[in-house]
Amino acid sequence: AEGYLAVALKAIRNMFRSGIRVGQGLRALVSDLRQLSGLRTRAKLCFQFLAAVNLADALVKNRISHVHVHFAHVPTQVAMYASVMTGVPFTVTSHANDIFERGLLLALKAERSTRFFTISDYNLKFLKDQGVPESRLGIVSVERVIPTATV
């Protein structure tokens, strides 16, 4: 694992790489920061943005066409900004404490994702109550993916 300083320095270098639209990412970050309170929460999101710049670089270099992340907290925040900067779509599978205890910007994450999956009817109802549009939601079961709406 890289230290904070190494991640930040690598991100600064990667901001100038071809194929990464940092300006779009920064606009999304600033807009999202306005919806949050607390210096610590905002600082974490800024650091996650730097990690997203590094992910964006890897997506471009490796010609990745889709990203799927598990957990709707930090991994989704990183993927969401990398997607904004590269145009590479992403999907999410949410589980439990990532939505109940650390559900930062859930409706926004779902809006930016291609699909937002979860693991139970209970979680689905919770996400809808948080403003996540049903058209974005799906339930992943052991046997199959059950869409809640037609895409």
Characterise this structure.
The structure is a single chain. The protein is an alpha/beta fold. Helix content is 52%, strand content 13%. It is built from 7 helices and 5 strands; from the N terminus they run αααβαβααβαββ. Strands 1-2-3-4-5 form a 5-stranded mixed sheet, with helices on one face. Helix 1 packs across helix 3 (39-61) and helix 2 crosses helix 4 (74-86). The longest helix has 23 residues, at 39-61. The chain starts with a helix and ends with a strand.
Give average pLDDT, whole number: 92
Instruction: Return the structural class.
Output: alpha/beta
Uncertain stretches of 5 or more adjacent residues: none
In terms of DSSP E residues, the strand content is 5-15%
Q: Measured on Cα atoms, how large is the radius of gyration? A: 15 Å
**What is the H/E order?**
HHHEHEHHEHEE
Number of helices: 7
Helix content: 40-55%
Tell how many strands the DSSP assignment holds. 5
How far apart are the first and last residues' alpha carbons, in Å? 38 Å
The backbone outline, from C-alpha atoms, is globular
Short characterization:
With 151 residues, this protein is an alpha/beta fold.
Label this structure with key terms:
alpha/beta; globular; 7 helices; five-stranded mixed beta sheet; 5 strands; 151 residues; 52% helix
What secondary-structure arrangement, pairings included, does this model have?
Layout: H1 4-14, H2 22-33, H3 39-61, E1 67-70, H4 74-86, E2 90-93, H5 97-100, H6 106-112, E3 115-118, H7 121-129, E4 137-140, E5 145-147
Helix pairs in contact: 1-3, 2-3, 2-4, 3-4
